[in-house]
Amino acid sequence: MGVQLKRRGIENFTIIEKADAVGGTWRENTYPGIACDVPSHVYSFSFELNPDWSQSYGTGQEIWDYCIHCVNKYGLREHLRLNSEVVNAKFNGNVWQIQTQGGQAFSADAIVSGLGGLHIPKHADVPGMEEFEGKVFHTAQWDHGHDLRGRRVAIVGTGASAVQVLPEIAAEVSEVTVFQRTAAWVLPRQSREISQQRRALFRRHAWIMRLYRWSIWLLMDVVGILSLRRGGLLSRRLRDICLRHLEKSVEDPKLRAKLTPEYDPGCKRRCVSDDYLRTFNLAHVKLCTDAISAVEPGGIRDATGKLHAVDTIIEATGFSAFDITKYLDFHGRDGKRMSDIWHESVTAYRSVMVPGFPNLFLLLGPNSGTGHTSALIMIESQVQFVLHCLRLLDAGKATHLEADANATRDFNARLQRDMRKMVFSSGCKAWYTDEQDHNFTLWPYSASRYVIEGKLFRDKDVTPQVQGS
Do both 136 and 100 map to the same domain? Predict the structure, then answer.
């Protein structure tokens, strides 16, 4: 967002950041094996293609370095206010008043929320955790001072972070037990190093790199979205690929059965790994599929009554997903709180605007996640939406823009109707959905369609207003 503002000659903006550095996910998550599950050349900005990715799937450190590179190259450092966690933002009928935890105050004509969807750790809700005598930490709060060599370790969870952590720590611990509530569908990553020759080619001929990026994007977009349609041919093909990967990786048929999900691939987030499943062949790597009953001073007791003696518990339990009102209090027109508006259902107009909150724009807002491609494609499209709205304001016909309530309702009714055609709504109780099975997280179509619809939206769906009205 900052880069695109500067490209258009807009310099009067501030980027308020809670931490002491940029990077978001890639600053927060430093656990062993942290990497992206989207190919590097797609998981990068279209305006700053990188010919020097070392791996086909970027590591966490490499992506964080890329974020810092972009800040420095595009002159964003002077716009940053680090160590400034925003706690509330209130619209006073004219401008937005923003308060930080440290007592700083900002005024803004418009706010763009770049809060992200997955950065508040969700901890295991298990009785007795405070009684545990060993070490406990979340994957997003990795304790690098805690030496795992020779430890008896428990990993709670089998999502994306667990899939990356297990193979990395298995060689150094004396024993590791994975506590699995629900098995994950695992696709082979087929990660590889990008040769120096290819990197040199991309440096010399940027158009080849851009063509390469487009080819990966289109392949992922077409094949990916078709594989997520309920009962579709590619959905069955995806299941077959995952099952073959499981059979090839795990030797014990009883263990394979425990690692085989009972839901459609994609209903929960699919994991991508070449070595996670193979790690279970090691004698000191255990899998527990019985529910956790309680944590005790010396370990974890499962529902059968068995005590698993461990001295380290790693919570691979994910994040509180996509509801920004859980950690930031937005007050819109007439004092309306976004947490109240979203209490029953989290919705927005085109994922970007919420009725009653003038000149507030959300990047990676409700229903803009994808289950098959890069989130950056969606974010860049949303940035263009915001720029269009800012141009409408610059035209001088209004001081505020607000999403039309009817257009927002119709937009979300269409999404939820078509969501039923996707595996996301096949009843697996994923973090994608709320308790009413309303999917407030994912986009049920291709990323290409999102980009096209963003360009074609009707100005009348965004209501212009004059200051104080």
Answer: no
